[in-house]
Design a protein that fits this description.
The complex is a heterodimer of chains A (166) and B (411). By secondary structure, chain A is α/β, with parallel strands linked by helices. Chain A has two domains: 134 residues, Aconitase, domain 4, CATH 3.20.19.10; 31 residues, no CATH class. Chain A has nine helices and seven strands, in the order βαααβαβαβαβββααα. Chain A has a seven-stranded mixed sheet with strand order 4-3-2-1-5-6-7. Chain A is globular and about 45 Å long. Chain B is an alpha/beta fold and 411 residues long. Chain B has two domains: 251 residues, 2-Layer Sandwich (Aconitase, domain 3); 147 residues, 2-Layer Sandwich (Aconitase, domain 3), CATH 3.30.499. In chain B, 31% of the residues lie in helices and 18% in strands. Chain B has a five-stranded parallel sheet with strand order 4-3-2-5-6, sandwiched between helices. In chain B, strand 8, helix 6 and strand 9 form a beta-alpha-beta unit. The mean pLDDT of chain B is 97. Classes of the chains: A alpha/beta (166), B alpha/beta (411). Chains A and B meet through helix 4, helix 5 and helix 8 of A and strand 1, helix 2, helix 3 and helix 5 of B.
Chain lengths: 166, 411
């Protein structure tokens, strides 16, 4: 159980991790600048277990992986949104940050609400209500179970994906 | 059988694929730049494998080149060390990655290219499947030479009508972006065609494919024709891809005969208006360049407009040719001299001020006209600056007037 950080539509990777802060690969440094444009108080007040709840096209713009890295490094357990930009969603899955599409939950949850996300089923719970989000794809699930794309491909190689297309 | 992107991937895999299939595919060339390469190198190192093929890796210093801060310099050192350790010789510091990939022939018709940069859709204009990914994906490609894709559905954009100068592909792409929105082509391939696209030069088509990324597109593609083949050669042993009995998820018809110059207003590139809605807005900085509009034709348009004119004293104007080849050719033709004499600043090839790290970072309250592709708050510096995206023609006219100006008034 964590608290919801509610954001609007079209939160870009420039808003999550501005160019002037991403000349590093250090997760802690990235975490401190996370969402500094959209929610300047985020990095200071976020707690492990919290959830980001956002509108359409979350993570649009630049491919910078620094954006999901900074979110994960703050202990955020999932991002729930109406929709995700393609590269952001792929990056998040690759590094083990679950992303759940669930418009109903986004419409119902207010900033600061208690939220629980079942990242395996896509179910989002808050204030006694349960919302059925989109479950992760079979491939996303395999990447998550392995602990990330590097871990999956390093361990099993691409062959397992070719043999059992997902 | 299939759309252009289905044909390209089918040809490379030697079996028919259709939209919705998830495939593991070979990557002809992968690249990263000075911001995304360090994380890609870390992912590669965690793979614990040798580099798959140094000849298929390209590293480009363009986002902060030369380094403007110690942090940037340290990232550059790490990349150079990686290249030396793994015999990567395709190392460039002479312009924007997306221009280098085309100029140097790393992106070719029929190929599959992955870049650790969202605008890697650009070379789809050559009839290849090229897409942007993150650093981890590229790190895994460095180790294995392959990646996974979900074969995308295709949005076909059929463009008709005569595009009257000074309108260009930038106005067409912004217009479409305004119509379908920043997620209008999410996860899809955007296939550009029709008589207007057929008449466009390669430079123009690259702009269309580039901005496909800002529609959410996984790829932006143009069909291969004589114009393409005059500027690039197909991947060996792969047929030239063409759409064959394609099934499109959607087809958008656009008639550009009466198109007005287009301006994307803050806060996002899909907030597109006819120039009449914003004409007269005072502008503090004009940036002409980027992977969208820093090509030779763009330099020609700008020099043509600035010849005999002077940049407005309140409007600092930064012009960045996108590559060394473009820069030197524009020099030979006298365009750079014209641009400098008009009072503009000409910077070394690279991303320039597009992403707010160098060469024209903006302050709170300032307004910018940029020929790039992004105007999110904070993109070019202060989150309280406003960024307007336009064609180079509008940008040049604005630089002279100090206000957003329709170039047709003085054409």
């Amino acid at each position: 159980m964590g608290r919801a950080w509610v954001l609007g539509d079209g939160i870009s990777t420039d808003a999550i991790m501005p160019g002037r802060f991403n000349l590093t690969t250090d997760p802690d440094a990235l975490a401190r600048a996370c969402l500094c444009e959209a929610r300047p108080e985020f990095a200071e007040n976020v707690r492990p277990g919290d959830v980001i709840v956002a509108g359409r096209n979350f993570g649009c713009g630049s491919s910078r992986e620094h954006a999901p890295v900074s979110i994960r490094a703050n202990g955020v357990v999932a991002v729930v949104a109406v929709g995700f930009a393609r590269i952001f969603a792929r990056n998040a899955v690759n590094i083990g940050l679950p992303v759940i599409r669930c418009g109903e939950a986004v419409a119902a949850i207010a900033d600061g609400d208690e939220v629980e996300v079942d990242t395996r089923t896509g179910t989002v719970s808050s204030a006694g209500r349960t919302f059925a989000g989109e479950p992760p794809s079979a491939l996303a699930m395999r990447i998550a179970e392995a602990g990330g794309l590097v871990e999956l491909v390093r361990g099993a190689g691409w062959a397992t994906l070719e043999e059992a297309p997902v | 059988m299939g759309t252009l992107v289905e044909e390209i991937i089918s040809n490379r895999l030697g079996r028919q694929v259709v939209a919705g299939d998830t495939v593991v595919a070979p990557v002809d060339c992968a690249f990263a730049h000075d911001v995304t390469a360090p994380l890609a190198i870390e992912a590669f190192e965690r793979m614990g494998m040798p580099l798959h093929d140094p000849g298929r890796v390209v590293l480009v210093f363009d986002h902060v080149m030369p380094a403007a801060t110690v942090a940037a310099a340290e990232l550059h050192v790490r990349i150079r060390r990686f290249a030396a350790d793994h015999a990567v010789r395709n190392l460039f510091a002479e312009g924007i990655c997306h221009i280098i990939m085309v100029e140097r022939g790393y992106a070719r018709p029929g190929g599959i290219v992955v870049g650790a940069d969202s605008h890697s859709t650009t070379y789809g204009a050559l009839g290849c499947f090229s897409t942007g990914m993150g650093s981890t994906d590229v790190g895994v490609i460095l180790a294995t030479g392959r990646t996974w894709f979900r074969v995308p559905e295709t949005l076909r954009i059929e463009v008709a009508g005569e595009l009257a100068a000074p309108l260009t592909a930038k106005d067409v792409a912004l217009h479409v972006l305004g119509r379908i929105g920043g997620d209008g082509a999410d996860y899809m391939a955007v296939e550009w065609g029709g008589e207007t696209v057929e008449r466009m030069t390669l430079d123009q088509r690259l702009t269309l494919a580039n901005l496909s990324a800002d529609m959410g597109g996984k790829a932006g593609l143009c069909e291969v024709d004589d114009t393409t083949l005059a500027g690039s050669s197909p991947v060996d042993g792969v047929p030239i891809p063409r759409p064959r009995s394609p099934h499109y998820a959607d087809v958008l018809h656009v008639d550009v005969s009466n198109l007005q110059p287009q301006v994307a207003m803050p806060p996002a590139a899909d907030n597109v208006h006819d120039i009449g809605d914003v004409e007269g807005t005072p502008i503090d900085e004009v940036y002409i360049g980027s992977c969208t509009n820093g090509r030779l034709e763009d330099m020609e348009v700008v020099a043509g407009y600035l010849a005999g004119r002077t940049v407005h004293p309140n409007t600092r104007t930064v012009v960045v040719p996108a590559s060394r080849r473009i820069y030197t050719e524009a020099l030979r033709r006298g365009w750079i001299e014209t641009i400098i004499e008009a009072g503009a600043l000409v910077m070394n090839p690279g991303c320039g001020p597009c992403l707010g790290r160098q060469h024209g970072v903006v302050a709170a309250g300032e307004r910018v006209v940029s020929t790039s592709n992004r105007n999110y708050p904070g993109r070019m510096g202060s989150p309280d600056a406003e960024i307007y995206l336009t064609s180079p023609a509008v940008a040049a006219a604005t630089a002279v007037a100090g206000r957003i100006t329709d170039p047709r008034r003085h054409h």
